[in-house]
Amino acid sequence: MRPLPVLANISLIGNKHVNRGTPCEDASISMSRNGVSVVCIADGAGGSRYTHARFGAQRAVECCAELLTSHFDAFYFENRESICRSILVTAIHSAMADLLVEHELDSLERLSCTLLFVAVKGDLVLAGHIGDGLICRVSPQGLAPLTLPANGENASSTYFITFPNAQEYLRFIKTTTDNTHAFVLMSDGVEDMVYDASNQLVRPVVARLAELASQGKVKAEEDLKSTIQEFVVDASQNSDDCSVGILYLPGTDTPDFSLLSDSKDRLERDFADTMRVVQTELIPKVKHAQEIISKINCQNGPNSGKLESEKACDAKSSEEDDEPSEKKAEDANATRADVDGSSSDDERETKPQIEDNVVDKPEQVSVSGNKKMVPLWAFLLVTGLLIVALVILAMLGLHTGAV
Q1: Which distant-in-sequence residues (6+ apart) come within 8 Å of 401 by Cβ?
Q2: Cα–Cα distance, 341 to 332 (Å, whole number)
Q3: What pLDDT digit, counting tens, does each position of 355-366 carry?
Q4: Which domains does the chain have, with CATH numbers?
Q5: What is the DSSP string of 342-374?
Q6: Which of 106, 88, 161, 101 is CA-nearest to residue 130?
Q7: pLDDT value of position 378
């Protein structure tokens, strides 16, 4: 049986915060429980708006570690990634709610932070990342980023787990430990020193940091702390807070450090190639596809469930009226049966909304036979006459009783 991973994590205050007299806003945690080993780090947001970011960072890593060690299988084997991301974000937001009361805060924004984590159970790996920072995979062949830093419109902005729509920016990765020696997580205070975004190069020093964990957790954290303090924090009077997490797999092959390269060709990126360009190019194709689908829906009748095709179908309604109503009802039932038989669970859950909006409109439902619906005015007239007759009868009955 493979031994459990060796875990190590540290968080150090940067000189920028020391000079300002502000506390460290990074947080990190490592935990082994229920056969699951997890390392989490978080970088609290800087700036006057994020007054309690350090508390948010600490609560985020604690909640994440607890959740993944308790429910690793639920997250790993759930095929709907959007569900996993939403539940993780919801759990962290819920855990942060107590901080709002404790510190009398007005919003989660005050607690803003990034979040990075790697969890391992046996050969299975679950990783997640929102915001800047870096997760690296160390293999016998060398180093490679597992997730990259995500910045906003400029290099100084990023995304936080406290966003209302944080699940849209949270990256979720499911993989295995195959060909893996260690995982190294780092906040941007370290990332800036060891990662070159221009060519996606992770410097060999990261593999050497990972190797510190071969000494065991206590010794690894001592050496990791002194190394980061000397070569990262003390290297600049404006250094940021620094967090590093290591998940080391004993018994796996160590990379040959002499073969690790400290240079790489620069990538040529086309900055004009954006998703907006892709969307613009797709517009004519989407319109063409909509026309095809509308025609198909018209041919299948009003029970096709396509709102956009209703107007186009109206043009054919007069022709369809000539068909026997019983045949139309059979076609509609067959169409619905086909849909019910082939839809997934998600489609079944959303289908009632479609039917409520389209199929169940009284004015669009076919009526069996040649009967026509009674006009409203006629119905009201008959009802009124019936009520008058009942009143007269009641009056006659009272008069007879009185006599």
Answers
A1: none
A2: 14
A3: 333 333 333 333
A4: 6-259 (3.60.40.10), 270-346 (no CATH)
A5: H--HHHHHHHHHHHHHTTT-GGGS--STT--PP
A6: 161
A7: 61
